[in-house]
């Protein structure tokens, strides 16, 4: 059964089973058979599904796309549940909380990246001081390419940019300017824009 279910549905089902187990433990049972827990979980899931459907129905009946507390109360009353007992159940002193075991991952030791060789201390710096950082952190390194200064490449780039600008302006004027007819006496045929 669990193999054909969606992983999200399996996790919801496990959460419901934990809630049912907590309620069974609160009532006073020390143990419960797997089949009993499955049956109670199925009953709780059916109850919550029906409650959700009724709540959605009341919300849609009122012209809303999301349910409100009043819709939940109406759905509970419609299902024959005592709404007043919910408050006393929420304030009970015998609550039991089942926390899942915490997963502790083994701490991974990160390898420090060392670039280049670290220089040793000069003679005027005592040895008990920390070592210098990696050289790339304080030695000047260029982060951008040097601009192209060859005459031919600069001229080609300028010509290409000029051609692109002229083409863009021509298209802009053609789209925003007035329409010129190829045949002035026939305004319906071949408008050129």
UniProtKB/TrEMBL annotation:
Keyword Protein biosynthesis recorded: yes
InterPro entries noted in UniProt: BTP, Histone-fold, TAF8, TFIID_su8_C
GO biological process: transcription initiation at RNA polymerase II promoter
A Gene Ontology term for the protein's cellular component: transcription factor TFIID complex
Subcellular location: Nucleus
Database matches in CDD domains: HFD_TAF8 (cd22918), TAF8 (cd08049)
Superkingdom to which the source organism belongs: Eukaryota
Keywords on record: Initiation factor, Nucleus, Protein biosynthesis, Transcription, Transcription regulation
Any matching Pfam family: TAF8_C
Name the UniProt record assigns to this protein: Transcription initiation factor TFIID subunit 8
Organism: Mizuhopecten yessoensis (Japanese scallop)
